[in-house]
Amino acid sequence: MKIIKRDKLKPRTEELLQREVKNHELLRHENIVRLYTWIKTPQKYFLVMEVCGRGDLLKFLHSVGDVEISDAREIFRQLLEGVAFCHGLGVMHRDLKLENVLLAEPVAPAKHHVKISDFGLSDLRPFDLSSTYCGSPLYAAPELMDGNMRAAMPNGYDASRSDMWSCGVILYALLT
Q1: What mean pLDDT comes out for the span 151-156?
Q2: Average confidence (pLDDT) over 103-132
Q3: Does 42 sit behind a cis peptide bond, omega within 30 degrees of 0 on the bond before it?
Q4: pLDDT at 174
Q5: Domain span holding position 86
Q6: Catalytic residue among 56, 95, 118, 123
Q7: Measuring CA to CA, how many Å separate 120 from each of 12, 92, 150, 175?
């Protein structure tokens, strides 16, 4: 359960939270954390989500050290299947990183079960360019890090390509 105190939220943050819920409610896929329901009270938001008890990929990498290539392939395939599903519905994650890829209990014969989480920066843009430059700098596509980016891309950027770059960074982390 994700609990957010409303008195600490700025209006823009509350708007992003409502967008997160709206986008996340569209997503029903085995490689995406399930949002069961959400509750808004005068004091708090409660987001009731699927449990992924094995932690995130960053913790996993710290605990196992080197990942076998076959395991990296399995994890990356599942990540790409989840991202492809999101993109097929026009939902761009825009903050893919090791910490936002969770591990649930695997179903045999698989060793891992990957689930994408945290759609707080997601955007529903089936055909349009994204105009908000966001995400984690270590995972961001180079064009998002360019100081002259707004001048170079005044109409925005293709967030699906940015998501794919972030997937590549995750793969690099798995393999190295």
Answers
A1: 63
A2: 85
A3: no
A4: 97
A5: 52-175
A6: 95
A7: 12, 11, 22, 27
Q: Decide if 61 is inside a domain.
A: yes
Question: Mean pLDDT for the chain?
Answer: 89
* Cα→Cα distances 33→6, 28, 52, 56, 100, Å: 23, 8, 8, 12, 10
The CATH code of the domain that includes 92 is 1.10.510.10
Q: Give residue 147's pLDDT band: very low, low, confident or very high (50, 70, 90).
A: low
Is 95 one of the catalytic residues? yes
Looking at the structure of the chain, the number of domains it has is 1
Residue 71, both tokens: 């395991």
Whole-structure pTM value = 0.89
Those residues with Cβ within 8 angstroms of residue 170's Cβ, 6 or more apart along the chain or in another chain: 57, 76, 79, 96, 97, 98, 101, 139
Q: Is residue 10 part of a domain?
A: no
d(C-alpha 88, C-alpha 99), whole Å: 23
The DSSP secondary-structure symbol of 61 reads H
Q: What is the spatial distance between Cα 102 and Cα 24, in angstroms, rounded to a whole number?
A: 15
* Confidence band, pLDDT 50/70/90 cuts, at residue 83: very high
